UniProtKB/TrEMBL annotation:
A Pfam family annotated for this UniProt entry: BPD_transp_1
Record-given protein name: ABC transporter permease subunit
Gene3D superfamilies assigned to the protein according to its UniProt record, in alphabetical order: MetI-like (1.10.3720.10)
Domain ABC transmembrane type-1 span(s) in chain numbering: 164-352
Amino acid sequence: MSDEQQLTNTNQDPVALEPKKKKEISLSILKKRWLKFKKLKRGYYSFLLLVFLYIISFFFPLLINNRALIVRYEGKFYFPAFKGYYPGKIFKADVPGEANYSILQRQWQEKNSDNWVLLPLYDHGPYEDINVEGNKIYEAPSSRHWFGTDDVGRDVFARLLYGFNISVSFGIGLTLISYLIGVSLGAAMGYFGGKFDLIFQRFIEIWSTLPLLFVVIIISSIIRPTFSILIVILAMIYWTSMTYFMRAEFYREKTKDYVAAAIAMGQSNSTIIFKHILPNSLVPIITYFPFNVIGGISSLVALDFLGFGLPPPTPSWGQMVSVGLKSISKWWMVLSPLGALFLTLLTIVFIGEAVREAFDPKVFSRLR
């Protein structure tokens, strides 16, 4: 290669690389962190799997249910999965109470009737017990009941999947409410400081000494805990941890030049807090979110196991473990909920590790 060609290539290299450099520089820090998160395959695929299963879980009443999706009887259409209860006498079935759609389907098929039933993919619901024909107490896993039945003949597989939706929803709901309180109060403490900060520090120290289990027991003895009430009770304690993180972040951020510039421009405190400081203080909020969800799920399972959680017959992993331990020989009653709990928490841990690595300030910082 001649000296002239080498000089030409050398002169072209900076020009060729310039668009790439501009493209890299133009990426926001959140975009860089998202791309880093996607490169962490274990956490990224765990995130996609959990989101997919959680979205699908809202359609379980259409996929896993003992109520038929559609019933065509004597030219009329019925929608039990949407409308609810239909007595057996409507379809001239010799079954007291609600119609057994599996039996109706079998009978009409044997008679080659024009009537037909469209059942869900898995035709057992989380609440049907021994009163439903064919259900038995502590039936071992089989082709009819994939994960067996419990102490009152309810299908374990159906309750397991419905319990997944309840557990994850509880963990996310508890974390969001705790964050709403903790982030707001921590931001105010860090921004205003002084006596306001000192008073609320003492209040949090006293409040955090409340024994959570005793509080739940006392409240449960007065009122029947529901999903919403239980979240509010636990959120009364869980908000304190995030308060300290946000307080420290706001103390650090408010000393920087951009905050001084905003104050000099006459911007209000709310604008400075929510528009300027809070976007720069999101790292602890995001990185601790998966681990707080784990704490919420674990708390619900523990309370249900002790009998102070959601009222029966709500599908609950903790309640299923409690029933299984009463008769340890029924291995499916212990293995199924504990296996589901282990896999769910492991998936969230993988997500949390990936988020924490992607948001590591040593990797990407707003000051770089």
